[in-house]
Amino acid sequence: MADEALFQFLHSEIIQYVNSAETGESENGRCVSKLENMGFRVGQGLIERFTKDTPRFKDELDVMKFICKDFWTSVFKKQIDNLRTNHQGIYVLQDNKFRLLTQLSAGKQYLEHAPKFLAFTCGLVRGALSNLGVKSIVTAEVSVMPACKFQVMIQKI
Amino acid sequence: MADEALFQFLHSEIIQYVNSAETGESENGRCVSKLENMGFRVGQGLIERFTKDTPRFKDELDVMKFICKDFWTSVFKKQIDNLRTNHQGIYVLQDNKFRLLTQLSAGKQYLEHAPKFLAFTCGLVRGALSNLGVKSIVTAEVSVMPACKFQVMIQKI
Q1: Within its chain, how far is the Cα of B96 from the centroid?
Q2: pLDDT in tens, A91-123
Q3: Three-state DSSP class for A152?
Q4: Average pLDDT of the residues in B19-38
Q5: Contact predicate B91/B84, CB 8 Å
Q6: Which helix (H) or strand (E) holds A41?
Q7: What is the largest CA-CA distance in chain B?
Q8: Which phi-psi region, left, alpha or beta, contains residue B89 (left: φ > 0; alpha: ψ -120 to 50)?
Q9: What is the pLDDT confidence band of residue B118, given thresholds at 50, 70 and 90?
Q10: Which residues of chain B lie closer than 8 angstroms to A3, CB-CB?
Q11: Helix locations, chain B, DSSP H
């Protein structure tokens, strides 16, 4: 419980700080991209530790399953609720109660703030995948809080 | 293990980001004070959760012991190694292997960077104490890494 709280509070502080530090015309975009970059580096670091003792992954799907189960549980204390793929390099990870959105009120008026609360995690996933040799673009969308979907588009090299 | 790593990586990202965002004449001072403020708010939040089910504290020393044992263990996975006081409102908390300094090389040339790595924690302690009704000033000093001492000066109201 302690650790979760620490992560959540730190995450909020970061959003608040980055949001206030990035002023200028395209501030919102820059804020989101800074947060995404932070997440990327943290994801890279974390996956190295997490996979230290795991056997080699069979394929891309195997990697995605690891992200949805082990990685997600370590960071967010629950698994991804649903993983779908078109078998052509697109994966959709659905979390029905995404931890970093649970502090936000569920009202529709807050939906516009959701990207700031998802950017770090998009980067986290992209960074983790990147260090497992999978290049990707990760986006997120929310329709009803606190449920949210992360879309991973694999970039074939 | 996962949680520790997450906290450490996030903490490093914050230092790096705040350090790069606060440019100007007195940049180093502002960086440290921003980090301290973040720590303060996180400390306030955490202590509320941690003390939800604990009995009321007897006195100031009782509060300090809680910080050194329970609070420190929750956040840094170990207790403070030594607590001293002059019984006149000054407490010195010594951590012989402070987690947030263990990533830094122990060379003397890095000592000047230590304040950035301690500011968040100073705020954390000040915030926690503040929400327990103890107003304080918290400073930190390092003589040999990764050992470090936090000095808490209670502000009598």
Answers
A1: 14
A2: 999 999 999 998 787 777 778 888 889 999 999
A3: strand
A4: 80
A5: yes
A6: helix A27-50
A7: 47
A8: left
A9: very high
A10: 3, 6-7, 74
A11: 2-21, 27-50, 60-66, 72-76, 114-131
pLDDT tens digit sequence for B45-69:
999 999 988 999 999 999 999 999 9
CA B103/CA B105 separation, integer angstroms? 7
Instruction: Give burial (CB, 10 Å; 0-12/13-18/19+) of B5.
Output: middle
The pLDDT tens digits of the residues spanning A111-154 come to: 888 888 999 999 999 999 999 999 999 999 998 888 999 999 99
DSSP B57: P
Q: Which helix (H) or strand (E) holds A118?
A: helix A114-131
For B13, which of A1, A41, A49 is closest by C-beta distance?
A: A41
Which of A9, A52, A120 to mutate against chain B (most B CBs within 10 Å)?
A9
Q: What is the ipTM of this complex?
A: 0.85
Q: Please state the rounded mean pLDDT for residues A68-90.
A: 95
Global pTM reads 0.89
Which is it for the CA torsion A139, A104, A80, A1, positive or negative? positive
Between CA B23 and CA B12 the distance in angstroms is 18
Q: What is the DSSP letter of A68?
A: I
User: Choosing among B12, B16, B17, which should be mutated to test the A contact, i.e. which has the most A CBs within 10 A?
Assistant: B17
* Distance, CA of A38 to CA of A24 (rounded, Å): 20
Is B82 a residue whose pLDDT tops 60? yes
| pLDDT: which is higher, A112 or B155 | B155
**Cα–Cα distance, B88 to B35 (Å, whole number):** 28
Chain A residue numbers with beta carbons less than 8 Å from the beta carbon of B9 are: 41-42, 45-46
Backbone angles phi, psi at B113, to 5 degrees: -85, -10
Chain A residues touching residue B46 (CB < 8 angstroms):
2, 5-6, 9
- pLDDT of B149 strictly over 70: yes
